[in-house]
Design goal:
single chain, alpha/beta, Rossmann fold, six-stranded mixed β-sheet, four-stranded mixed β-sheet, globular, binds S-adenosylmethionine, Methyltransf_16, S-adenosyl-L-methionine
Length: 374
């Protein structure tokens, strides 16, 4: 197979688009015949100050190309007349073919083209090689190995890694003491990257999403990175025991969700779930939601809008205004001044929101009714 064809009715995460081709390798087909790729995410030991973008990008180039033999894209190859001038040329049909010059200091400059290659298919020899690679990664503490698919339909977006997951992971890595020893629930975990990072500091992480296929991928990623986390109970596959449900209600201190607000109905579902959980927990709980504000041109508006984001903001306001006597929510945006431990573009459309849910003391309600009846 020379090239993978991406159909136009699919979406591809920028995370996979921007990673170097050499690390974007197809390893197998999953049970529904989708190509599965493996990406390695290097976790920097010392986070980079996000105000120093130049340094981060410099580091990114080094990590992508430790031997300095990175293939340049065709566009970059064109630019070698010493002056940075690009010579236009004619294509086979005689049309003028003007290559796009990478913008200087642009965060997208220097990216490799993504050229997935089938390296191996399942066979005993390959499985042995896989074990050796896993062993290698096990030894390199600072590397996350994540299997994912590329260019999925909207229903399958959880099988890719999204920038929101990396932003949330960065936040966790920059504040490990906040989550240390706690019980955490992740909603819409997708490939499980954020949960895996969370498990390096939290005591227990409930990693949730929908769909057997996706959960199997997520489980595989957890086992690929088990050197970073404590092994979870084998238990019954993808189901909750009574003890776990009780533990969730009694002990969850944090709920996290990365890039789960891109469809109004799903966003409504998310906020209903958050409300139900927080008002049933026995403790107050803090929620962190990361997202990317995506702009789309719509024919209805004849303009660029960010509908999914606007809906998310409306849901936030409604939650904050809620006064049902059981639970109150305080909503604030978290400044993205925390360090960057993972390599991705922290574009200005990325946001992190903190929702603090406080249970109102039931005793007050009781007292009020006592007063009323006396
Ligand atoms: C764009 S993916 C993000 C995956 C991962 N958190 C990341 O950032 O890489 C969105 C995920 O959220 C899940 N999701 C969205 N809304 C949901 C809902 N209401 N209930 C359950 N899962 C939901 C989807 O199944 C999907 O896996």
């Amino acid at each position: 197979m020379d090239q993978i064809a991406f159909h136009h009715d699919t979406v591809l995460s920028d995370v996979h688009m921007h990673l170097p081709g050499a690390r974007h390798l197809m390893t197998r087909l999953n049970s529904v015949g989708q190509p599965v790729f493996v990406s390695r995410f290097k976790v920097l030991v010392e986070g980079h100050d996000n105000s120093d973008r130049g340094k981060v990008l410099d580091q990114k180039e080094k990590l992508n190309d430790p031997q300095g033999d990175t293939k340049t894209s065709p566009c970059q190859d064109e630019e070698k007349d010493g002056e940075g001038n690009v010579e236009p040329f004619l294509d086979e049909d005689g049309d003028l073919d003007v290559p796009h010059r990478p913008r200087e200091n642009s965060a997208v400059g220097g990216r490799d083209l993504v050229c997935p290659v089938i390296l191996k298919q399942s066979s005993p020899v390959i499985e042995l090689e896989e074990c050796e690679e896993e062993e290698e990664d096990r030894c390199s503490e600072g590397v996350l190995r994540i299997e994912h698919t590329m260019a999925t339909t909207l229903e399958d977006v959880g099988k890719q890694v999204w920038r929101g997951a990396l932003l949330l992971a960065d936040f966790i890595l920059s504040k490990p003491e906040l989550f240390r020893g706690s019980t955490v629930l992740e909603l819409g975990a997708g490939t499980g990257l954020t949960s895996i990072i969370m498990a390096t500091t939290a005591t227990r992480v409930y990693c949730t999403d929908v769909g057997e296929d996706l959960l199997r991928l997520c489980k595989r990623n957890i086992s690929l990175n088990k050197h970073k986390t404590e092994p979870a109970d084998a238990g019954v596959e993808f189901s909750w025991t009574e003890e776990e449900v009780a533990d969730l209600y009694d002990n969850t201190r944090f709920i996290v969700a990365a890039d789960v607000c891109y469809d109004d109905d799903l966003t409504d579902g998310l906020f209903r779930t958050l409300y139900r959980l927080c008002s049933s927990f026995t403790h107050s709980c803090t929620i962190f939601i990361s997202l990317e504000k995506r702009m789309n041109f719509t024919l209805r508006h004849m303009d660029v809008t960010c509908q999914a984001y606007n809906h998310f903001r409306r849901c936030l306001s409604q939650l904050q205004d809620l006064s049902d006597g059981r639970c109150v929510f305080r909503v604030e945006q978290v400044p993205l001044s925390f360090s960057q431990f993972l390599l991705y573009e922290r574009i200005e459309q990325l946001e992190l929101w903190k929702l603090s849910a406080a249970l109102l003391p039931l005793v007050d309600v009781q007292l009020d009714s006592d007063l009323l009846s006396s």
